[in-house]
Amino acid sequence: MNELLSGKTRFANFTTPWQEVKLADICDIQKGQQLNKLNLQENGKFSVINGGIEPSGYYDEFNTQENTITISEGGNLCGYVNFLTTKFWSGGHCYTLQNVKIDNKFLYFYFKYQEKDIMKLRLGSGLPNIQKGSISAVIIKYPSLEEKKIGEVLSACDECL
């Protein structure tokens, strides 16, 4: 995985140099909308994703489409990276990466691999959080769109686990 995500190992016929840009140059980083805790349900239609690994609850509406990368904005697990394959409600402690201009699956695996470094961006101690400016400035090194096979291979490996 390290070899594929760093560009050290390349698939045959791909020689185009990888590009380096700030995350904000290849996608829109959006912060979710906080729901009143009283509106959360135990069995709603859509997960409410906030600052953790598990949903905060459920809600009958969604504000984010499926196949979206999330990064936890606040709480003890801020910096946690996830890829949601279903529609969901992005809460106030959740960043979503929208309008991604490179292979979405590659970007997810790249960030998942860098998750410990992303978690180091946290500020504060009572309720730690990661500022949008810090996430926006993260440097991404990525291949051309034609080399999307990397994301496909890593997805296939992930499904086997």
Task: Give descriptors for this structure.
161 residues, hydrolase, 23% helix, alpha+beta, restriction system, Type-I_RS_S_subunit, 4-stranded antiparallel sheet
- Order of H and E elements: HEEEEEEEEHHHEH
Strands of the widest sheet, in order across it, are: 2-8-5-6
Provide the low-confidence segments as ranges: none
Helix content: 10-25%
The termini sit apart by 14 Å
Give the amount of beta strand, in percent: 15-25%
Largest sheet: 4 strands, antiparallel
Oligomer: single chain
Mean pLDDT: 87
Tell how many strands the DSSP assignment holds.
Answer: 9
Count of helical stretches: 5
Q: Tell me the structural class.
A: alpha+beta
Instruction: Give the overall silhouette.
Output: globular
Rg, Å, rounded: 16 Å
GO molecular function: endonuclease activity
Protein name: Restriction endonuclease subunit S
InterPro entries: Restrct_endonuc_typeI_TRD (IPR000055), Restrct_endonuc_typeI_TRD_sf (IPR044946), Type-I_RS_S_subunit (IPR052021)
Family: Belongs to the type-I restriction system S methylase family.
Short structural description:
Helix content is 23%, strand content 22%. It has 161 residues and is α+β, with helices and mostly antiparallel strands.
